[in-house]
């Protein structure tokens, strides 16, 4: 039982490790790999909370660990990626500007952590750092097809949107299979299209992360069907 209680935290640590690997790939000039690892981190981040609820393993420790992982994978890693691909040409100024992203992200996470749980079920206040980091990763993947000024504008906008008071609809109450499957198929097709092209190296963690994520969604789908069937029988 103790082992199953630790599974969500292991998934969170895997998310954190993806962020570390992404920084390493970015420093080595393998920008596509770095971006893909951030997207893998998004998959893992979407799993740990739901696994915790499924296994009745919710804990304050897990929530704090999740925030620490998020600031690395979706804050620090994307900022390094954007610096190495776009802001490096501005020298020290570009490095300083890129460093603003994790600062805004950390502020947003801290604010979220002290927000009463019930008030964050229907909406998010400000853009979640997970979404912001994922957007920067996608921009890097398609960076060759758009002017650099667009990336700069989006980067700046995301920084301020994370700490804004804008209400962003939450999908926490939306059944996972309906939207999770669509997201998984989209990400899977995107990764295949990109890497069936001209890129030669590939973070092999994707071969583990994607099947596990699909299996997780399939399990959630089956459990959802069983729960609805029991509700109909009991009503």
Automatic annotation (TrEMBL):
It is found in: Endomembrane system. PANTHER family: CDP-DIACYLGLYCEROL--GLYCEROL-3-PHOSPHATE 3-PHOSPHATIDYLTRANSFERASE-RELATED, CDP-DIACYLGLYCEROL--SERINE O-PHOSPHATIDYLTRANSFERASE. Belongs to the CDP-alcohol phosphatidyltransferase class-I family. The lineage of its organism: Bacteria, Bacillati, Bacillota, Bacilli, Bacillales. It catalyses: a CDP-1,2-diacyl-sn-glycerol + L-serine = a 1,2-diacyl-sn-glycero-3-phospho-L-serine + CMP + H(+). It comes from Evansella vedderi. This is CDP-diacylglycerol--serine O-phosphatidyltransferase. Gene3D superfamilies: 1.20.120.1760. Its main location: membrane. Coiled coil: none annotated. It is a multi-pass membrane protein. One of its GO terms (molecular function) is CDP-diacylglycerol-serine O-phosphatidyltransferase activity. Its EC number is 2.7.8.8.
């Amino acid at each position: 039982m103790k082992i199953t209680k630790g599974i969500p935290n292991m998934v969170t640590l895997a998310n954190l490790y993806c962020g570390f690997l992404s920084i390493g790939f970015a420093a080595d000039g393998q920008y596509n790999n770095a971006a893909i690892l951030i997207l893998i981190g998004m998959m893992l981040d979407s799993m740990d909370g739901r696994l915790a609820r499924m296994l009745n393993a919710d804990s304050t420790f897990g929530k704090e660990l999740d925030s620490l992982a998020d600031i690395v994978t979706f804050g620090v890693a994307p900022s390094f990626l954007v610096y190495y691909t776009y802001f490096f040409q501005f020298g020290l100024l570009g490095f300083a500007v890129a460093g603003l992203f994790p600062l805004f992200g950390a502020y947003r996470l801290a604010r979220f952590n002290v927000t009463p749980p019930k008030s964050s079920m229907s909406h998010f206040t400000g853009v979640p750092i997970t979404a912001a980091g994922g957007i920067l990763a996608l921009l890097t993947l398609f960076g060759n097809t758009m002017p650099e000024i667009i990336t700069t504008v989006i980067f700046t906008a995301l920084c301020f949107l994370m700490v804004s008071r804008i209400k962003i609809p939450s999908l926490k109450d939306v059944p996972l299979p309906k939207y999770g499957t669509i997201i998984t198929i989209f990400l899977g097709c995107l990764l295949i299209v990109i890497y069936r092209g001209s890129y030669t190296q590939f973070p092999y963690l994707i071969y583990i992360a994607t099947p596990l994520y699909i299996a997780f969604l399939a399990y959630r789908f089956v459990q959802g069907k069983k729960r609805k069937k029991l509700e109909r029988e009991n009503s």
